[in-house]
Amino acid sequence: MSTTRVLGLDIGTSSVGWALIEGRDPDHVRIIAAGVRVFPMGVDEATLESRNIQRRQARLRRRQIERRARRKTKARHILQSHGFLPPGDPSHADPAWASVLALDPYKVRAEGLHRRLQPYEFGRAIYHICQRRGFKSNRKRPLTKKEKGAVHEDIAGLKREMDAAHAETLGEYLNRLDPRQQRRRGRHTNREWYREEFRQLCERQRDFGLPLSPALQKELEETIFSQRKVWWKRGSIGRCSLEPGKQRAARALPVCQRFRMLQRVNDLQIILPDGTTRQLSDEEREKLLARLDWEENLSFKSIRKLLRLPAEARFNLEEGGETKLPGNSTAYRISRAIGKREWERCSPESKAQILEALMSIEDEDLFKRVALRKQWGLNEEQAERLSEVALEEGRLDLSTKAIRKLLPLMEKQRLSYAEAAWRVYGDRGPAQAYESVPPVEDLRNPTVQRSLAETRRIVNAVIRRYGKPDRIHIELARDLKAPKQIRLRRSRQMRRNEAERKSARKELIEQGLPEPTGRDIEKYRLWKECGKRCPYTGKMISFSDLFGPHPKFDIEHIIPWHRCLLDSFANKTLCEVQENRSRKGNRTPYEAYSGDPDRYEEIKQRVREFTGPFGKAKLRRFRCEDIQKLPESLPLYGGEQLNATAYAARYAARHLALLYPQEERRKRVQVSAGRTTAYLRRAWNLNRLIGLADEKNRADYRHHAVDAVVIALTTPKLTGELSKAAARSVRPGTFQGLTPPPGLTRQLEEILDQMVVSHRVDRRVNGQLHEETFYGRIDNDSVTVVRKPLADLTDRDVAHIVDKKVQRLVREKLSGGAPPSKVFANPANLPAFVSPSGRTMRIRHVRVRVDASPVRIGSGAKTRLVLTGGNHHLEVFRVVEDGREKWRGRIVTRLEAMQRKKNGLPIVSRTDEDGHPLLFSLAIGDTVRLQWKGKDTIAVVQKLSANYYVFREHTDGRRAKDRPYAEQIVICADTTLQRSACRKLCVDPLGNCTVAHD
Question: Which CATH architecture has domain 4-46+430-477+639-744?
Answer without folding.
Answer: 2-Layer Sandwich (3.30)
